[in-house]
Amino acid sequence: MARKAARAQSPPVVQRLPLTAARINLGALVKRVHLNKEYVILEKDGIPVAGLMAIDEFEDYLELQQPKVRESIRESQQEYLAGKSRPAGEFLEELRRQTRGRVKRRRTA
Questions:
Q1: Residue 19 phi, psi dihedral angles, 5° rounding
Q2: CA Rg value for the chain
Q3: What is the pLDDT of residues 64-108, one digit of tens each?
Q4: What tens digit of pLDDT does each residue of 24-74 get?
Q5: 0.85 cut: is pTM over it?
Q6: Is 73 strand, coil or helix?
Q7: How is domain 2-65 classified at the CATH fold level?
């Protein structure tokens, strides 16, 4: 867990690599991208043409391209700035109280 937190705070590693080198080492390259959350910019004749990133980040990126998601984030940000937020502990305690009141009893046959 501490490794994950430390990794999240360090700046991302970005490596530039010619396509020919990437082709030769593709398996190892993908493993590094996946495990170490590195980024790779692939170049053809010194010109950047593509990039590699971990699939979870790519899926997040794709999700952020959806207008409904962006609107929801914008609304949440406005509510936060307007002071409509509360501490997480307070919110979780409210959920616990609500859950205790909703516990259904099984009927016996």
A1: -55, -40
A2: 22
A3: 889 898 898 889 889 888 888 888 888 889 889 888 876 565 666
A4: 999 999 999 999 999 999 999 999 999 999 999 999 989 988 989 889 888
A5: no
A6: helix
A7: YefM-like fold (3.40.1620)
What's the rounded Cα separation, in Å, for the pair 98 and 92?
A: 10
Strand ranges in 19-105 using DSSP code E only, listed in sequence order: 39-44, 47-52
Put residue 83 in one of left, alpha, beta given phi > 0 → left and psi -120 to 50 → alpha.
left
**Cβ(42)–Cβ(48) below 8 Å:** yes
Dist. CA 34–CA 40, nearest whole Å: 11
Dig out the tokens for 5 from the structure.
């937190």
Which residues, other chains included, contact 91 with Cβ-Cβ below 8 Å and sequence gap of 6+? none
Token readout for 64 is 């952020």
The domain segmentation of the chain, as residue ranges, is: 2-65, 74-101
